[in-house]
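Thread: Modeling a multi-component assembly for a lab meeting

Hi all, long-time lurker, first post. My supervisor asked me to bring a structural picture of a complex we are working on to next week's group meeting, and I have zero experience with this. I have the sequence lines for every component (431 residues in total). Could someone generate the structure of the whole assembly? Inputs are pasted exactly as I received them:
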Amino acid sequence: MKAVSAEEAVAMIPNNARVMVGGFMGVGTPERLLDELVRQKKSGLTLISNDAATPGKGVGKLFDGAQVSSMIGTHIGLNPKAQQQMLGKQITVDLIPQGTFVERIRAGGCGLGGVLTPTGVGTLVEEGKQKIEVDGKPYLLETALRADFALVHAFLADYAGNLSYALTARNFNPVMAMAADTVIVTTEHIVPVGVIAPDHVVTPGPLVDYLVANG
Amino acid sequence: MDAQTIIARRVAKELQPGNLVNLGIGIPTLVANYVPAGLRVFFQSENGLIGTGPIPEQGLAHPLLTDAGGKPISALPGAATFDSAMSFGLIRGGHVDITVLGGLQVDAGGQLANWMIPGKMVPGMGGAMDLVSGAKRVIVAMQHAAKGKSKIVARCNLPLTSARSVDLVVTDLAVIAFPGGKATLLETAPGLTVAEVLAVTEAELVIPDTVPEMTF
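Re: Modeling a multi-component assembly
Sure thing. I ran the full set together rather than chain by chain. Output:
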């Protein structure tokens, strides 16, 4: 784990990168990294995020400046700009069920090729997918999802990069912290090693590549 | 009583002590307001919480404690938080006793369409497909008709949410279940006759010998 500034962290992300961002409607989202993505005008991003948040908040900021070319998520209904860009064919949007979304990312982080889920069987979601029966019940084969970068927001991070999360700001963060080549973390508080008890560490330090330092 | 109150109060009667319940946005959210005091029901919010409480008092909201719409909520004693993989494990794994969702259409076989209107409204399905596929009991809470058109249809022409049929539909006019895969009128709203409900319902309904009025 290396401590870097938000500016240095985002400078590592090239245009057209595939970026996973934690958060649920902007809650538990690494806002400082999103502000920096906006400031450095990164473009053509493939965004993997549960939702498009709202304009001006969370990943919604990336749609304000049309920095996203493609989104993989579960819901964009509360961001009119993302909707307009999708309907205007400026961006492609792959909408998938939320439970499938998180399991595909989990699979990507856990070395699995994919998962079998009953969700989506008999709906538009099954189009183009392999259907597999197990004990007479049909499942869809949903393949693993990974990214070049995961941008994660924690509540506490210690000097060793161990992370814990708070309340509903946990959401997709610990799952995404396993599913990208490079993991960049922002946190509400940086604390000495030992403040987070081993039993309370949710994301172990070795998974974190870069921790965005205070200030 | 207005339409939404009728629906929310009638759905609330379905909740049993100890149930783990997921409420969707819109009318389903109102159900929590009518759960009798002392009935130990656990509400799940799919963004990672069991034990959601009411909207916090002025000044007590926490930016990291929200519902699935991103709005501030509170947590009750005994609440638990978890990540999204566990949240949907609970949902898909059959650990949620009841899910209450809104609907665009429910058809005579109990199939639900509630996540998109092609070409018009494509917000994404969020957690709806997992909830309908995985919860033990699926209750749809919706207005009986929209813009004068019955939402209880012969066959859904909007994209389905799941191949699985729902268990109960509660509208401002009726309660409908699907025994044997056939839409069956269980109750009418107070003051309504069976004939009045049938007149505004597109789907064919099975009518039992007695169809009582809803009680709350």
